[in-house]
Write a structure and sequence with these properties.
Layout: H1 5-27, H2 32-35, H3 40-71, H4 74-95, H5 100-103, E1 112-114, H6 115-118, E2 127-133, E3 136-141, H7 142-148, E4 150-155, E5 158-165, E6 170-174, E7 177-178, E8 181-182, E9 185-191, E10 194-199, E11 205-207, E12 213-215, E13 229-232, H8 233-239, E14 244-246, E15 278-284, E16 287-292, H9 295-298, E17 301-306, E18 309-316, E19 319-326, E20 329-336, E21 339-342, H10 343-349, E22 354-355
Parallel strand pairs: 3-14, 16-22
Antiparallel strand pairs: 1-14, 2-3, 2-13, 4-5, 5-6, 7-8, 9-10, 10-11, 11-12, 15-16, 15-21, 17-18, 18-19, 19-20
Length: 356
């Protein structure tokens, strides 16, 4: 062992460092080309093996380092100490500053106030995700969801998982009930610029934009989507003044990553479509279609047909809504979810989409 002390030390160094750094680069939006790769399977495998590799690397690092320290002069000892500090520093950064779960935490306490009581000149145009179930209405401000990414709550006695991804502006609400049990999730990172969450029971990974499980024992399953409406707080206060709105958790309001003005960012405004252009996306009977946000700066109402289904989209002062149209009459009982997000996200997760 004495003869191969540097080899043992360097193998330990690589095992303790490379998988951790590689996993971070794959799951965090650091290198664009890496985020745009379909690397979920690789990331998931690395994630499952991270602790065995780290433990083995630590053992080899310690064993080789002991012999290097004994046999080397100060240049060798200095190099060994520097490499060891690099491993420790990288592990610390990944566990804290570079951890999606640590960077974007769920509220420690969930509290609500009436929409009417929250209206002021600085917040009236803030957007909220509105969920109504069994006559109960709750709203979740987009800027808060932009930080928390997900909130597990109950609306009308029904469990809901309210989610938002800041990199693609995707708002989604799902049922967290899987196999009859309310599942809990944590944020693990992102791929294709969309957040991925992990369920606590099996450790499976799910895309936030679709609710599809893409890695782990539950691969192929889908979370059931729950209808929601994205509108301004002023609109909600006008229509339902007593609707309950999620308020800031005092623990996070001063956090550097807290996104107080996040919903003011509307993406590219040029007429030509780009990856960061905002679109309104709908799915009708499994067929997706997207509409450029710029269209509704000129037109407040649009009629269209999506796979033989007549629909009408209406942009009112508070937000966008869509309904099916039967015999020339708008059927408000048949509302269609309208997703407001970046084009790159909608196109990636709905590759067969049409664009208006």
């Amino acid at each position: 062992m004495h003869r191969y002390r540097w080899l043992i030390f360097l193998v330990g160094f690589l095992l303790a460092l490379v998988p951790t750094v590689l996993l971070t680069l794959l799951l965090m939006p650091i290198i664009r080309s890496w985020q745009e790769m379909d690397s979920v399977s690789t990331s998931y495998a690395l994630y499952q093996w991270r602790w065995p590799l780290l433990i083995l690397g630590g053992i080899l690092l310690a064993a080789g380092g002991m012999y290097v320290w004994r046999a080397s002069k100060w240049p060798g000892k200095t190099l060994m100490a520097l490499l060891t500090l690099i491993v420790i520093g990288a592990q610390f950064m990944v566990a804290t500053k570079m951890s999606a779960e640590i960077m974007f935490q769920e509220p420690s306490a969930i509290a609500f106030k009436s929409a009417e009581s929250l209206i002021d000149k600085d917040s009236e145009n803030n957007e909220v995700m509105v969920v109504t179930i069994n006559g109960d209405t709750k709203a979740y401000p987009v800027n808060m969801m932009g930080y928390h990414h997900k909130v597990l709550d109950y609306v009308g006695g029904t469990p809901v998982l309210v989610t938002y991804c800041t990199m693609c502006h995707t708002a989604r609400v799902f049922s967290p009930v899987i196999e009859g049990v309310v599942e809990h999730f944590r944020l693990v990172g992102a791929n294709n610029y969309n957040a991925m969450i992990e369920d606590a029971t099996t450790g499976s990974w799910w895309y936030q934009a679709t609710g599809e499980c893409v890695a782990g024992p539950r691969k192929g399953q889908m979370l059931k989507e729950i209808a929601y409406t994205q509108m301004t707080l002023a609109g909600l206060a006008t229509r339902q003044p007593n609707a309950r709105v999620l308020i800031d958790d005092p623990k996070f309001v001063d956090h550097p990553a807290y996104m107080k003005s996040y919903d003011k960012n509307k993406g590219d405004t040029a007429s030509a479509i780009s990856r960061r252009s905002m679109v309104y996306g709908v799915v009708v009977n499994g067929y997706p279609k997207a509409y450029r946000a710029q269209i509704f700066e000129r037109e407040q109402c649009m009629r269209d047909t999506v796979h033989s289904v007549a629909i009408v989209l209406v942009k009112n002062p508070y937000g966008m809504v869509a309904y099916e149209e039967l015999a020339g009459t708008v059927d408000t009982s048949r509302a269609i979810n309208v997703h407001q997000e970046y084009w790159h996200s909608w196109k990636h997760f709905h590759p067969s989409t049409q664009l208006q």
